[in-house]
Amino acid sequence: MSFCLQILGSGSAVAQYGRNHTSHALIINSKVFLIDCGEGTQIQLSKFRVKKERIAAIFISHLHGDHYLGLMGLLSSMHLLGRTKTLLLVSPPGLSDIITIQLKYSNTVLNYKIDHVEVSGDNKQIVFEDKYITVRTFPLNHRIPTVGFRFDEKPKQRRINKEKLPNDIKLQDIAKLKTGQNITDHSGNVIYNNELTLPPRKSRSYAFCSDTKYDPSLIDFIQNVNLLYHEATFLEVHQPIAEKTFHSTAKQAASIANQGLVGELIIGHFSARYKDISMFSDEAKSVFNKTFLAKEGDIYCIDD
Q1: CA–CA gap between residue 192 and residue 194 (Å, rounded)
Q2: Using CA atoms, how far apart are residues 167 and 145, in angstroms rounded to an integer?
Q3: Which pTM was predicted?
Q4: Per-residue pLDDT tens digits for 80-114
Q5: CA-to-CA distance for 239 and 32, rounded, in angstroms?
Q6: How far apart are CA 86 and CA 88, in angstroms?
Q7: Catalytic residues
Q8: How confident is the model over 176-214, as pLDDT tens digits?
């Protein structure tokens, strides 16, 4: 099963130097989970051939324009393309009012239902769950209510060792072996055991930390994820501005990753004051070596 992240936008409030507003597409088992939807996101989806009809849910971290102003256009396009499947939309309070008033004055009734879940920035909350993954929110430290998102694959079943599998074993017995059960006869004697199986593949995880000032309390929420995105709007030389505007520096993002024992770090949301972002990589890697710059179109797949 695939577990891949594609960067759609990596800029901050002002789109500059070919950097679009924030948006990520997390593709899990053919479902697309869109995270933030800055202006131009639907153009980026088309450019990188991410199919809009496969979007199962949209997660909006907060209501600053560079994180949601592309949403209305995308919702309208999905309507015009004939979508009928219910769309899950997760956001802090207020977005429903914004959508309602725009639909009202355009005299539009969408073909599909929006299941809108409003989340508080005060605590961790499960906002999506199926048989494969669980998605939780967690609070971020920004000027307005803002949440991060953590995607965790559920524990997987054991794998069958085909080289040891008897030809006459029943399908229902194979299903039991995958759950870790032994197969016994009517007397309770073990016929087949876990020697016929291999350990389950690892469960993968991704955490998205949108706009936030440096906050060590985030470490508890992102602990041990395979892949972490953490905003890095400024370089350390501009740390006072980061503090004032409730943003982070590249070095601070790397510190969170290092303390959280994450696998890899992606940094983005680069301020328009920087045309050359190579120094972000240098600064972050001095603290956490496995750091990558969010570059639009780049894909990060986590192996299982």
Answers
A1: 7
A2: 58
A3: 0.90
A4: 999 999 999 999 999 999 999 999 999 999 999 99
A5: 35
A6: 7
A7: 66
A8: 667 767 766 676 666 666 766 677 789 999 999 999 999
Element (H, E) at 80: helix 71-80
One-letter amino acid identity for 123?
N
| Residues 6 or more apart in contact with residue 165 via CB below 8 angstroms | 174, 196
Residue 50 pLDDT: 96
Q: Convert 142-155 to b/e letters by CB count within 10 Å (16 or more is b).
A: beebbbbbbbbbee
- Residue 203, number of CB atoms within 10 A of its CB: 15
**If you count DSSP H runs as helices and E runs as strands, how many of each does the chain have, helices first?**
8, 18
So what's the pLDDT on residue 98? 97
Q: Which domains does the chain have, with CATH numbers?
A: 3-156+201-301 (3.60.15.10), 159-198 (no CATH)
List the beta bridge partners of residue 5.
26, 300
- Location of structure tokens 């039991």: 176
The position carrying tokens 């969170």 is 256
Determine how many CB atoms are found less than 10 A away from the CB of residue 31.
15
Q: Are β-strands 159-160 and 147-153 bridged in parallel, bridged antiparallel, or unpaired? A: unpaired
State the pLDDT at residue 182.
72
Q: Is the pLDDT of residue 159 over 90?
A: no
Identity of the residue numbered 60: I
Neighbours of 286 (CB within 10 A): 13
Per the document, the length of the chain is 304
Q: Which residues, 6+ apart, have CB-to-CB distance to 266 below 8 Å?
A: 5, 7, 227, 228, 229, 230, 291, 292, 293, 294, 300
pLDDT, residue 207, reads: 98
